Amino acid sequence: MDLIEKLTRCIEQSCKVDTELFKKYDVKRGLRNQDHTGVLVGLTNIGDVVGYEMRDGKPVPVEGQLYYRGLEVRDIVKGFQEEKRHGYEEAVYLLLAGELPKSSDLSEFKKYISDRRELSMYFKNLILSLQGKDLMNMLARSVLLLYNMDEKAEDKSYPNLVAQSLDLIAKFPLFIAYAYHGMRHSYQGKTLSIRHSVPELSVAENFLYLIKGHGCYTKLDADILDLAMVLHAEHGGGNNSTFTIRVTSSSGTDTYAAVSSAIGSLKGTLHGGANLKVLGMMEHIKENVEDWEDEDEIANYLRKLVNKEVYDQSGKIYGIGHAVYTLSDPRTVLLKQKARELAREKDMMKEFHLYELIEKLAPQVINEAKPGRVHKVLCANVDFYSGFVYTCIGIPKELFTPLFAMARVTGWCAHRLEELDFKTKRIIRPAYKNVYGRQTYKHLSER
């Protein structure tokens, strides 16, 4: 037995905690209450996620709602879509400033962001030299590299924190695009294509241009990417990556270290990488279900998924269910509307109808598989359709999670600014109860 194997066995044994002890000491595992609601750990003015109402001390399912600074996201989306313009920049302004911008404010804000979405050739070469296979890791390293370029990196005055936030929001698309092209060149033998930002393009359009080039995307492609970015920009303070940046920010660390910590959290397959799991599952279903319109055949295969008989044997139907939303996820509702339009344009309606059938059948199959338990109200979450949408647009799967980060950096920065502005600043430090027991030290010769 080598050292690693020996240590692994010891560590596996020492890490085991009797699950009954969680009940004994009333430990909120995953910061979740027994009724699956989240443990209240803070207050925020930024986003609000509503999936249930508390009535007589019990959570009652309701149609999902998502608020940005008190504005329902459906109203925000309806507003810019009716005016046939992109809305991400407006959402960024709203989330940071707490109010919708006037026309002149929005124009000035867009120019400010556009002026900062360029990198020096030195910095571009640094990103290209990272030689990484994982774009999320490369994104985090790019953010940390930016620390060295910032003469005021440790300055925590509010104007400087705001400037740092806007700079990161502007540069995230470039970090991701250049890291992607560098990865393709280094590991896939592709031609290295480096494009410069186009000032007059929106954030969504500019990103598609950086990745694909002129004439390689449609107006609907850009519209739906802009929508996806608006829907992913913020999701309350309790989601894993936002809570992470609030924790690290509470310690007094710099902006770049705090943002990179959030990137590390979002990379996880249970968070930002979830749509990749959905995509893999759907490819597996398409390969193994003969008739994509046969509800019985689809339901039977979903039962095999739940029973850990097929795919990755996890027992999960990815993209179904959410920690807060019950009857519906408003992001899914809005994205699905545009996904249908996109599927028509790309001649992918057959695949879209398969997604719809699985969205319809999965909640029932999941609850049927758990007899005797209280049935949960389940809906498709935003990850269920986002991977399909990105595939229709022609975005490579390596970019799915970085795209999430590109949108969510806005929410991260807003929550960091809020965390650092609280008058009763305290480092976030919850408690853990030790249940290992006590030992008596033995000298080396006696072991």
Question: Which helices and strands occur, and which strands form pairs?
Answer:
Blueprint: H1 3-14, H2 19-24, E1 47-55, E2 58-68, E3 71-72, H3 73-82, H4 88-97, H5 103-115, H6 121-128, H7 135-149, H8 158-188, H9 203-212, H10 219-232, H11 240-250, H12 255-266, H13 274-288, H14 295-306, H15 330-345, H16 349-368, H17 382-393, H18 400-421
Antiparallel strand pairs: 1-2, 2-3
Helix pairs in contact: 4-18, 7-8, 7-12, 8-9, 8-18, 9-10, 10-15, 10-17, 10-18, 11-12, 11-18, 12-18, 13-17, 14-16, 15-17
Descriptive overview:
With 447 residues, the protein is mainly α. Helix content is 56%, strand content 5%. The protein contains 18 helices and 3 strands. Strand 2 and strand 3 form a beta hairpin. Helix 12 crosses helix 18 and helix 15 packs parallel to helix 17. The chain is globular, with a radius of gyration of 23 Å.
Concise structural overview:
The protein has helices at 3-14, 19-24, 73-82, 88-97, 103-115, 121-128, 135-149, 158-188, 203-212, 219-232, 240-250, 255-266, 274-288, 295-306, 330-345, 349-368, 382-393, 400-421, and strands spanning 47-55, 58-68, 71-72. It has 447 residues and is mainly α.
